[in-house]
Amino acid sequence: MNTLRAGILGCGNFAHRHAQIVTTLAESEQVELVAFCDRNEWKAQAFSEQYTAGRGQVFTDHHALLDRVALDLLIICLPPYGHSDEVELAAERGIHLLIEKPIALQSELAWRMVEAAERAGIKTQVGFMFRFGEAVERLKALLVSGEAGRPGLMSGRYFCNALHADWWRDRQKSGGQLVEQAIHIFDLLRYFFGDPVCVYSRQENVFHRDVPGYTAEDVSGTVISFADGALGVIYATNGAIPGKWIGDYRVVTQRLTAEFTNANQATFHFTDDPQREPLLITSERDFRQAQMQDLLRAIRTGGPTRTPIREGAKTLDLVLAAARSNELRAEVPLSW
User: What average pLDDT does the segment 294-302 reach?
Assistant: First the structure.
């Protein structure tokens, strides 16, 4: 089995987790890091030193990276505003992709990425890692089998309290809290319930009006509707408990109510059988590692990934529609 050669584009804080995972899987999955790219050369060099003892090639421009290094896999960890032509260029070269969310800030760019990737036939995985949580997998299986019955309602929250980076506070660069953070819960809603038909959202800056450059919302409430009548309600704030990052959710179906603490931990109440004991699911699964292994398996076997780039574009369209709804103060229809 040939060793897969991987590179990282965007050597910020979050890229460390992907580099650690590739390093951990190097022997078992036959994959190695060979190149690093960041507009700040010192960041790329630091990654090379930390993860390859300086052997990995270093670049400050992704065009040079893709032209000079024969890669099998590119891990894209750019901030939302940093995407350009990297997906299209990688696809042209037959390079498989793991791309962090959101995959873009404009729907047009996202769907160009989808077109390029699907035309080239490469394997792609978008960083919606919560799809790989143990408890999420269990509920998905019950929904697919029909055992859970018809889905009716999902509520989810994303609570934090931090100033974040300068670019994050700027809605033009991050898309806002809903687009950059709460998008994970919107993606789970799509994963469980399918594609919605319309969305209504209100988003305000309540707590950070006096912070220079803070144009993102810090409170939001969004209602998502589905053709069969099911609803999703997602609310978020950047004004909750300092130092705590809370992303939990509840799903109500015809025969089941699931209360999630996170993607790995949940309690399932079987509401069609009051005598049945609740099912407690608790796991320490590394869902980011599982996400990478799913991609590597798809590359090796030619099979599908759980979250191909088309899924990333659809979830992006949903949160962008929510942002548009806030601007219009009106419900926005969805179609794909």
Answer: 98
